[in-house]
């Protein structure tokens, strides 16, 4: 589940904005410009997630057997491009799509061999999903963050392996059971089964 699921309770009015604020606090109650900028970015992120899904993986229409297989194991779901798309759609409804986006970005990084490209993509992944300043930050424990910070001094295609496993496990334990009981999955299962019986 995304750590940004609940809205900060205090938002200072615009009249209190301090453009030259020098504090860099981590609380929700101060009126510093950093907190206001993060709040705006967070709200924009939530609004974006209500739009249609961008950049979905290209995939063939899943068969009834394939859709039923997704309920048998999380691995089957994640190995299927169609399964990942549907699961990603569900994660958007829970405001935790960044977990899937991070996992996919890590998978893409593993296919890279060019050192310059690896450095560039690793930096982008860090800024998008690891940095505490990002509205798409994924939830990782301090040990994994320390490992990543060390590895970022000399990034490789496996810099985020520990973090990717932690997010995979989080999605498996937390989101996957709810996905199987969701209207999104049940509706798809019904649709493909109905289409199959008619053909």
From TrEMBL:
Kindly give the SUPFAM superfamilies that the UniProt entry links to this protein: Regulator of G-protein signaling, RGS
Localization, UniProt = Cytoplasm; Membrane; Nucleus
Q: What is its main location?
A: cytoplasm
Pfam families, per the entry: RGS
Cited function: Inhibits signal transduction by increasing the GTPase activity of G protein alpha subunits thereby driving them into their inactive GDP-bound form. Binds selectively to G(z)-alpha and G(alpha)-i2 subunits, accelerates their GTPase activity and regulates their signaling activities. The G(z)-alpha activity is inhibited by the phosphorylation and palmitoylation of the G-protein. Negatively regulates mu-opioid receptor-mediated activation of the G-proteins.
Q: Which GO terms describe its cellular component?
A: cytoplasm; membrane; nucleus
Name of protein: Regulator of G-protein signaling 20
């Amino acid at each position: 589940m995304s750590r940004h699921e609940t809205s900060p309770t205090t938002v200072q009015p615009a009249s209190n904005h301090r453009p030259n604020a020098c504090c860099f606090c981590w609380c929700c109650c101060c009126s510093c410009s950093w907190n206001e900028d993060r709040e705006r970015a967070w709200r924009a992120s939530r609004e974006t997630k209500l739009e249609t899904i961008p950049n979905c993986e290209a995939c063939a229409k899943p068969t009834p057997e394939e859709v039923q297989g997704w309920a048998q194991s999380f691995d089957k779901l994640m190995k299927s491009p169609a399964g990942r798309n549907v699961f990603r759609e569900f994660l958007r409804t829970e405001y935790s799509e960044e977990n899937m986006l991070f996992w996919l970005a890590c998978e893409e990084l593993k296919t890279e061999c060019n050192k310059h490209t690896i450095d560039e993509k690793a930096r982008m992944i860090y800024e998008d999903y690891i940095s505490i300043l990002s509205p798409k930050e994924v939830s990782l424990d301090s040990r994994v963050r320390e490992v990543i910070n060390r590895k970022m001094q000399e990034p490789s295609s496996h810099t985020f392996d520990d973090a990717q496993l932690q997010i995979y496990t989080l999605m498996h334990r937390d989101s996957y059971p709810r996905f199987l009981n969701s209207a999104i999955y049940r509706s798809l299962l019904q649709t493909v089964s109905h289409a199959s019986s008619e053909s």
